[in-house]
What does this fold into?
Amino acid sequence: MQMGEPLPIDFIWFDLGNTLLHREREKLFAELLEKAGEKRSLGDIDQAYHAIDKQFMREFPGRLGRPAEEFMPHYFNLLCRYLRISGDMISLLNRWMELWKTVENPWLPYPVVPGVLEQLALRGKRLGVISNWDRSAKPILERCGLLDKFEVVVISSEEGVAKPDERIFRIALERAGIEGDCCLYVGDNYYDDSIGAMSVGMKSLIVNRFGTFGVEELSGQRLIVDVSAILPYLDEGGS
It folds into this structure.
């Protein structure tokens, strides 16, 4: 390796929600709206959720990681306003919260995830998780058949510190026995994920399923549609 050349990526870290795992909230919400006489297309609902997720990440850092009861009234109001839904918002929100409680397994892996993790392992890449999550994270990963794919799993609720604080990234690096400049972090929240990862020297990719929509303010950040794009990124040299 020439002096000054970037080090190869040996370890890839992942966020969980909306990176490896997702909820089928859009379909359930579409069914609720139709019953309420406020029918919207699944595509419009998907885009609305994406827009409000990104708005919260940008304007209300950390709030999405709190219990739903603390942020959902504000989130739900913005979501309905985006979709131009009228009527009794309080009643609709209560029905939504009750309906969501009936979902048995709310978090599922994206279809591409198992294959991508397998391909990365076959390439000799070490894999880990750094996530702002409650203590359900590891049981969810185990239920999804993913827990044993990761060498190190670092969860904010277990460590008492959350992204973007560089301390949670340093905890992960110490447990993996590796330096940040040999790592790539993949997440969906620039303000938690990229900023935190860069503070310890990691490269970063941000998952944004709608191209630049919702993150138009970002400049110079590499965006990907889903985690399958990690493979060509590595083929390009990871820069």
